[in-house]
């Protein structure tokens, strides 16, 4: 099982937790990776669930840094729900701009071009849930 854990870059406990909780996934703040990856957009992703196969949603917290203003928007096949946890962003979606502040949310198709642009002095944090068909 350790080889499988290496391939998926998860701790061995990830597999044991499933047996302990019988269908429930608990991810405490101290056990999850604060920064799973930083992509070309300058976003940092913090995965909130470690059992994406249990449902068709994939929740994460995206830290939006300054600097995405000049990058090209992107697309993906999933619908997306976002909720601004802190700061504010501009959601550029399908060539339109939407100003979202702390507490605001949006639901949209990932098939249209979109990008988050930080609109705060500090980094902004956005709860992002990808909903697979």
Overview of this protein structure:
The chain is mostly beta strands and 133 residues long. It has one domain (24-131): Jelly Rolls. Helices cover 12% and strands 40% of the residues. The protein has two helices and nine strands; from the N terminus they run ααβββββββββ. The chain has a six-stranded antiparallel β-sheet with strand order 1-2-3-9-4-7, with no helix packed on it. It has a three-stranded antiparallel β-sheet with strand order 6-5-8, with no helix packed on it. A hairpin with a 2-residue loop joins strand 5 (88-93) and strand 6 (96-101). It is globular and about 40 Å long.
Summary?
With 133 residues, this protein is mainly beta.
Major beta sheet, specifics?
A: 6 strands, antiparallel
| CATH fold category name | Jelly Rolls
Strand proportion, as a percent range, falls in 35-45%
Rounded mean pLDDT is 78
Overall body shape: globular
CATH architecture: Sandwich
Helix/strand layout:
Elements: H1 2-8, H2 13-21, E1 37-38, E2 43-47, E3 57-64, E4 79-86, E5 88-93, E6 96-101, E7 105-109, E8 114-118, E9 124-131
Antiparallel strand pairs: 1-2, 2-3, 3-9, 4-7, 4-9, 5-6, 5-8
Key structural traits:
40% strand, 133 residues, globular, 6-stranded antiparallel beta sheet, 2 helices, mainly beta, Jelly Rolls
